[in-house]
Amino acid sequence: MKRTLTWRLGLIIIGVIFSTLIITSITTYNTAYNSLYEAAGVEAYGCANITTGLLEARDLEDLLNGERTIEIGKKLNWTVNHKEIFESQYILSLDGEILALDDHLIKQGFSVGDQFQTDKEAIQMLIEMKHSTYSEIYEFGGMKRISGYAPIFKDHDPSKEIIAISVIDFNADIVKERTWTVVKDGLLLGFIPLIIAAIFTLYLIRKKTKPISILIERTRMIANGDITVYENNITSKDEVGDLAQNLEEMSTNLREIISTIKTTSNDLVSNVSDTSLSMNEISLALGHVSTNMDEVASRTSKSAEMTTEASNALMTLSKLIHSSKEKADISVESAEHTMTTAQQGIQKVHEIVERMNVIKKSTLDTQQIIGTLSTYTTEIQQITEAITTIASQTNLLALNATIEAARAGEHGKGFAVVADEVRKLAEQSNKEASEVDKLVSKITTSITNTVGCIEESRKHVEQGEQTVNETGEALENIRFAVKNIVEEIKGLSSLTHDEANTSEQIVQLVIHLEEANEHMSMNAQEVSAATEETTASIEEVAFRSTVINKMSNQLNTIVNRFKL
Fold it and tell me: Sorted alphabetically, which keywords does the UniProt record give (predicted)?
């Protein structure tokens, strides 16, 4: 425990110191980095501004015309050759096209006419303010760069427009390297006092927690039952000293309490044992009383149950009798309704018989009319045959007249025309007579079929009449039988009504008997319950006495564990 507490406190303090150092280091690094980054940018655009003097006004005009780019690029080598911290120098047009570049940028794979990445915001500020500036760190051409931008004015006159931009590149890694060079010594020196402070802190914490270890050992002894007088030799006047004094006072009070409990527990065990024996004897006596009362209550309860069963059976019988009476009344109503329906059926049968007679008479009349039609069709057929014969003779006469007209020559032409018309009329009459004969034949066939159907219908009507008469007789028999059944059911309903009244009286008597048995059973159960409650209370007291006895023994066992 001592080591754990010591190391935990030490780690907390050291962690706070480390965190402070890390935060301070990060802040220092960022401040140095920003300062060096700004210094690199200022140095880059300052040199870019100064080295514009390497170019004459004629050189600028040639560059804009795309002439002497290699020669002018050689002049730019002077800057990096004299200050190796720079990576390269080159001239850009306002839209970012390389106009001239030194050999260092050529080695990186660039050439005149290439489009070079620029910081748009920095270029915009340079054009608007006509002032040198530098870019943010950006990656292009396989390296991270810081570019210093300086405006190149026409004829080197700042009052004229900007015609190109002089650019010098820094390798951005130099900023990180120089920043680390600046801050690393301070960081390393900061760790030395930190280590010293950590060691000294652990020493102080360990020294201060040693009395706590002694108190922990004392509490372990008390936990194991050793509460004898103990000298801890802790004389400090701080919270630890107060804790040691209070712990010993607690041990003294605990010794007094344990001693008192031990004496009381022994007396309690003796008293509880005597009480438990007395309670067991009383409980045994009440058990016999309770058993006898339970037997009385059981027999009374069985009698009540048998009475209840008899009452239920009689009530069920009464319900069945009432149900039989209701069903008998319903049967009377149904039988009377059936008899009424049978009477109505007989009346309907008589009506059907009358209608069947009318149908039979109509069928006979229809049969006679169709016979008359058959006679008429025979006469029509004879007339058509006579017309056909006359037409044939007329046709023959017309033919003879035509022959005679031909013999008469010119004088017989008019007669020949008339004879021809007569012949045509005779042929037409013969044709129409044939059609009429066909129609008459069809009508005759239909009449013959109709006569057969009517004869069949007449037979069915006669059979239906016979069936209806038989149905009427059957309904009459049903009505007579139902009438007898109604009389018998009415008699049965009257008897059932008397039985229902008698069963209700019996049920009432049994209910009174059941109530008396229930009252007797309840009294017996109350006596038994009271006895059982008393027995239960005594048993509870005996049980509690046993429990107290057990607890007293356990308490003695626990108290004996302490060393006074």
Answer: Cell membrane, Membrane, Transducer, Transmembrane, Transmembrane helix
